[in-house]
């Protein structure tokens, strides 16, 4: 009985054995299962290598993404330039299709609505001071706005471009142009985007005024 008590006392007085780190066959430090023991230096180096590899991989991935974003931005700029060129080309084509048109503003809605062609013919005869028997070749004449928004502009397409330019020049020389008791204005017909650009340009002060460039006869020079 005395011997059993001594063994029990020795077993109770012993400290629990902590799991220790062991070295595997590959020479790497591994931990014993369930133990918190750390490898003496080798495990920390391995963990640091893994972190370094992951950081390097993330940096490489970020660089790749940055290059892709830069390429996309360059492509966007190229497409924007193409869009500007296409818009300018479309605007030029539309203005060319309108080059024979004259826009008549100020003509009231009334009896001439029944025969706009005769009204425009008489107007052009007065502008050019020609006999009324001479017919001006006109492709078409029509109002350019809905009838519920009077007075609407009249659009006349002239067959001959030089003759159209001659009519506009003669109308400018007779400004203000009076016809049948009304003051009329004749304009070149432009695309809507061109008219908007001119409106925006008129709202801005000229560069030579903001920069204080010297002028001669209203024309800036340096």
Major beta sheet, specifics? 5 strands, antiparallel
The percent range for strand residues is 15-25%
Which consecutive residue ranges, at least 5 long each, have pLDDT under 50?
A: 1-12, 16-38
What is the average of the pLDDT values?
Answer: 75
Q: What's the number of extended β-strand segments? A: 9
Categorize the overall geometry: rod-shaped
Classify the oligomer. Answer: single chain
Class computed from helices, strands and strand pairing: alpha+beta
Q: In whole angstroms, how far apart are the ends?
A: 123 Å
Number of discrete helical segments: 6
Task: Tell me the helix content.
Answer: 40-55%
Q: What is the alpha-carbon Rg in Å?
A: 45 Å
Q: Spatial order of the strands in the main sheet?
A: 4-5-3-7-6
Q: H/E order of the elements?
A: HEEHEHEEHEEHHEE
